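Exercise 7b. Backbone tokens:
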């Protein structure tokens, strides 16, 4: 299974680091290195993608499911990349409210009505977790001290 994360990039190319105990970041690629069979970085104009190839027998791969209500062509394409023993019933894992939105295309009100579309438990938990985990310094600009911390 290949997992990719793309963002706007940073001042330096992503490399595994040895962050201090108090550093806010710098651990992601070390985690990827320990879990992945292979990984790399792909640069495009205005963005950087870090990809990782996870072993198909990994515990994470056993949690990936295929929705039961998708088109046969898409389902076959997804299944070819997954182990046959994986559960193919995503709708029961995420709640019955999500299934119709996958089938008909995502509802435009999904962003404003997360609780109604994904269930009250998930919506309320997600909202409180987002509020509790917002880093007020996340969008600040990097300065030279930050670059030293990343090195």
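Sequence design result:
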């Amino acid at each position: 299974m290949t997992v990719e994360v793309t963002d706007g990039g940073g001042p330096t190319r992503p490399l595994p680091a040895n962050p201090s105990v108090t550093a806010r970041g710098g651990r992601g690629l070390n985690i990827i290195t320990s879990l992945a069979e292979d990984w790399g970085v792909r640069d495009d104009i205005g963005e950087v993608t870090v990809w990782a190839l996870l072993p198909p027998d990994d515990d994470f791969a056993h949690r990936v499911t295929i929705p039961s209500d998708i088109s046969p062509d898409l389902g076959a394409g997804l299944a070819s990349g997954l182990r046959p023993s994986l559960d193919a019933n995503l709708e029961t894992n995420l709640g019955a409210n999500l299934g119709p939105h996958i089938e008909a295309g995502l509802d435009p009100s999904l962003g404003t009505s997360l609780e109604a579309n994904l269930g009250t438990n998930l919506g309320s938990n997600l909202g409180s977790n987002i509020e509790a985990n917002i880093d007020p310094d996340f969008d600040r600009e990097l300065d030279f001290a930050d670059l030293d911390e990343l090195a």
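Instructor comment: The radius of gyration is 19 Å. The longest strand covers residues 38-44.
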